[in-house]
């Protein structure tokens, strides 16, 4: 496939793996890149910048294809040393960075000065236009279906993607709700030049998650998510389990605040869940796309299936419509 995304990123297929914390490690990233897509490491999965340097080197030992690094910028009382992580990325010769979360402005000048292509993930057209003005190269526009933080506008991809495509001049990746070739073709038809997948890549052999989590993603349907932190205007879509049910119930009570659920949503608990397979240990990110996940293939098998299905849709189903 040949799109603005494949040309810009130097990849064979317009499929990008999301930079998911605790999940986007060398094994998964290299597998995606080797299969023709773009794998993306999660910088903040690594405990310090030198560990990120080591993980980048480990990824290079597993693939000679392009890959990127995600730098998610989040509000925090004690923020991580973002500038040092950024320097580790630059020092390691990485040429593609995905930023997400807060405004990436403070990182752009340094990244661009070192020839880094910047993808910025956002959930609203107005934020995408702001990122374009700042000088990012690609916008990953994240619909309401997505895992993680869908923003507060509640606009699904079917509207958000073409709305962004109408106004942006830079290439667009469609994110949130993608798992197969049908979704890839739909994204291209809506004006994107590729797709970004997170939850679907979690249910692959190479994803560094406990098998219980992968099988739960397969067993779940499109209803098996919870939206937490709605009243705090920091909405997050997570997998439905007893812990996220409890978070929703507590925050639905009048007068409750984040402090009332902080013990349930600690990142350390989520990491424990992913590593131990104990689905009652914490919360885990998962999108509505769970309803389209039916197996746990290798990354190569998944990528080949997506491209074959997309090709069949374009060459057969759509051609038949025109007859």
SSE inventory with pairings:
Elements: H1 4-9, E1 15-17, H2 26-34, E2 39-42, H3 49-62, E3 67-73, H4 82-91, E4 96-101, H5 105-113, E5 117-122, H6 125-134, E6 138-142, H7 157-167, E7 172-175, H8 181-190, E8 194-197, H9 199-202, H10 211-219, E9 225-228, E10 236-239, H11 242-251, H12 267-276, H13 299-322
Parallel strand pairs: 1-8, 2-3, 3-4, 4-5, 5-6, 6-7, 7-8
Antiparallel strand pairs: 9-10
Helix pairs in contact: 2-3, 3-4, 8-13
Structure description:
- The chain is of the alpha/beta class.
- Helices cover 42% and strands 15% of the residues.
- The protein contains 13 helices and 10 strands.
- It has helices at 4-9, 26-34, 49-62, 82-91, 105-113, 125-134, 157-167, 181-190, 199-202, 211-219, 242-251, 267-276, 299-322; strands at 15-17, 39-42, 67-73, 96-101, 117-122, 138-142, 172-175, 194-197, 225-228, 236-239.
- It has an 8-stranded parallel sheet. A two-stranded antiparallel ribbon has the order 9-10.
- Helix 2 packs parallel to helix 3 (49-62) and helix 3 (49-62) packs parallel to helix 4.
- The model has no long low-confidence stretch (mean pLDDT 96).
Brief account:
The protein is of the alpha/beta class. The chain starts with a helix and ends with a helix.
């Amino acid at each position: 496939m040949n799109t603005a995304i494949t040309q810009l990123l130097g990849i064979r297929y317009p499929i990008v793996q999301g930079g998911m914390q605790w999940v986007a490690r060398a094994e998964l990233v290299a597998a995606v890149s080797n299969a023709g897509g773009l794998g993306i490491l999660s910088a903040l999965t690594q405990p310090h910048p030198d560990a990120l340097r080591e993980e980048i080197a480990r990824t290079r030992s597993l693939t000679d294809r392009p890959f990127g690094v995600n730098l998610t910028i989040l509000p925090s009382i004690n923020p991580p040393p973002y500038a040092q992580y950024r320097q580790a990325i630059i020092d390691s010769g990485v040429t593609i960075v995905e930023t997400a979360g807060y405004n990436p402005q403070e990182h752009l000048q340094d990244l661009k000065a070192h020839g880094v292509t910047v993808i910025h993930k956002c959930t609203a057209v107005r934020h995408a236009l702001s990122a374009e003005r700042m000088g990012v190269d690609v916008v990953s526009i994240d619909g309401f279906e997505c895992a993680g933080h869908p923003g507060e506008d509640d606009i699904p991809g079917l509207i958000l993607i073409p709305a962004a495509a109408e106004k942006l001049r830079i290439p667009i990746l469609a994110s949130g709700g993608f798992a197969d070739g049908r979704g890839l073709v739909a994204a291209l038809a809506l004006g994107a030049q590729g797709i970004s997948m997170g939850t679907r890549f979690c249910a692959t052999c190479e994803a560094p998650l406990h098998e219980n989590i992968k099988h739960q993603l397969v067993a779940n349907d499109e209803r098996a998510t919870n939206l937490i932190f709605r009243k705090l205007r920091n909405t997050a879509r997570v997998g439905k389990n007893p812990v996220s049910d409890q978070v929703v119930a507590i925050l639905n009570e009048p007068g409750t605040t984040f402090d009332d659920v902080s013990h349930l949503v600690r990142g350390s608990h989520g990491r424990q869940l992913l590593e131990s397979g104990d689905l009652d240990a914490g919360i885990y990110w998962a999108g509505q796309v769970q309803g389209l996940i039916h197996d746990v293939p290798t990354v190569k098998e998944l990528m080949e299936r997506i491209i074959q299905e997309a090709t069949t849709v374009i060459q057969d189903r759509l051609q038949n419509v025109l007859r």
